[in-house]
Amino acid sequence: MKTKLIAAAMVMASFAAPAMAWEGQVVACYDSVWVPAQFKTTKHLHSAAHSKWEHRGDQLVEVYYAPVYIEKRTQSSKGYYLKRKAACRN
Predict the structure, then answer these.
(1) Does residue 9 belong to any structural domain of this protein?
(2) For residues 33 and 61, is the Cβ–Cβ distance under 8 A?
(3) What pTM was computed for the model?
(4) Quick check: is 23 in a domain?
(5) 17 pLDDT above the threshold of 60
(6) Which residue range forms the structural domain that includes residue 37?
(7) How many structural domains is the chain composed of?
(8) Long-range CB contacts for residues 73-80, cutoff 8 Å, separation at least 24
(9) Does residue 15 carry a pLDDT above 80?
(10) Does residue 7 belong to any structural domain of this protein?
(11) CA pseudo-torsion sign 22, 24, 25, 30
């Protein structure tokens, strides 16, 4: 009888142990924030600025054409998640 009471007490204590294990307080909360990838952009001249004489109707007109650039993007770093301090919701 005595062994059954000791065994029952041990079983009850093992069920109560997880509940007693967490007695801490929440210190800080963090959210995951996505930081997008970084890109480096370079411009290369495709055609320089120039002007041309054109016939428009019965007039001779000087037309200015702006320079044309080709833009090239290269990825300098990949995107990643960052942990940022936030207000606790629970």
Answers:
(1) no
(2) no
(3) 0.46
(4) no
(5) no
(6) 28-86
(7) 1
(8) 73/39, 73/40, 73/41, 74/39, 74/40, 74/42, 75/37, 75/38, 75/39, 75/40, 76/38, 76/39, 76/40, 77/37, 77/38, 78/37, 79/34, 79/35, 79/36, 79/37, 80/34, 80/35
(9) no
(10) no
(11) negative
What is the full DSSP assignment across the chain?
Answer: -HHHHHHHHHHHHHHHHHHHH-------EEEEEEEPPEEEEEEEEEE--EEEEEEETTEEEEEEE--EEEEEEEEEE--EEEEEEE----
What is the per-residue pLDDT for 18?
A: 58
Residue 72 in any domain: the answer is yes
pLDDT of residue 24: 83
pLDDT on residue 25: 87
Higher pLDDT, 17 or 34: 34
Which amino acid is it at 7? Answer: A
